[in-house]
Amino acid sequence: MTIERVVGIDYGTKRVGLAKSDPMGLFAQPVGTFTPTEALDVLSSMGEEDTIRLVVIGWPLEEDGSHGKMTKLVIEYMNRIRKRLPGIEIVRRDERYTSERAKELIRSSERPSMRKTGRGRIDTAAAGIILQEYLDDHPPS
Q: Does domain 4-137 have CATH number 3.40.50.360?
């Protein structure tokens, strides 16, 4: 049986955080943090295991809502995803403040071992926040 997943991406020039939906499309689950090229490989293998229905990528708007240098880099990365996974719909989601929110979530964890806020953990958590907000706004029908 093929499972349809929605994938969340927090893009960075050095690290890319990935999250995927559960099979019912209700909850974001962490996948990990990878280099941009490794993340494309992970997306490809995820697409072989399950069907990726949609990719939600963080859209790095400036504080005032304008586009900056990072939005151009995200567009380039979206094009790389499209080449690797042709036909997959990609939607952009405002990612302002997701890293700060991810740090707070990690710090507030009840388990001391989970309170470490290394960059990789933050990027994965930010991808989860981007994806969870999308899933909350678009519940399965």
A: no
Q: pLDDT tens digits, residue range 124-138?
A: 888 999 999 999 999
Helices (H), the chain: 36-49, 69-84, 98-107, 119-137
Tens of pLDDT, residue by residue over 1-48, are 668 899 999 999 999 999 999 999 999 999 999 999 999 999 999 988
The residues, ordered by sequence, that sit 6+ positions from 17 with a Cβ below 8 Å of its Cβ are 9, 10, 32, 33, 120, 122, 123, 124, 125, 126, 127, 128
Q: Which residues of 52-82 are buried (b: 16+ CB within 10 A; e: fewer)?
A: bebbbbbbbbeeeeeeeebeeebeebbeebe
Query: What ranges do the domains of the chain cover?
Result: 4-137
Residue type present at position 110: E
